[in-house]
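Let's practice the habit of predicting before peeking. Look at the sequence and jot down your guess about where helices and strands might fall. Then scroll down.
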Amino acid sequence: MIPQLIDIEQAPWCVLPPGVHTATLAEVKSVFAQNHHRRKLFLGLLNAANALHVAGCKYLYLDGSYVTAKPNPSDFDCCWNPEGVKISLLDPVFLDFSNARQNQKNKFLGELFPFNFDAAPGKKFLDFFQVEKYSGGQKGIIVIDLTTESFTQLEEGFHDLY
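Done guessing? Here is the structure:
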């Protein structure tokens, strides 16, 4: 379940309260895909989640301005658990960090990192994503269990976005 967004000092938008909050893609869609632009980003997230699922990824962690009250976030940010992922089935774009991850943004409209990669010296993405970048305060992220998702149902109503 996605908790109510909270206001933290110096942050430009309300954010998730601190912690790792379990949610389904349907819940993410219901809470965050509330305008045309956000629905388009959600479809990119859905496609990325499905591609990771096919490769054997079990958990996807969602962050970025997409999971804030920002009306028109530029993209979404995710990190994913590489445990059990079959590299032979993984779309190579998930490991392409060149040109500021432009190929990921072109394909999925967001950026996706293995969660055990360093986001900053000594800080893995899973921890890095839980720090609000303007204030330095703690904020929350969403974890999605990809083993329990039904991707085809979630695509309904999104065919007109591309």
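How did you do? The two ends are 29 Å apart (CA to CA).
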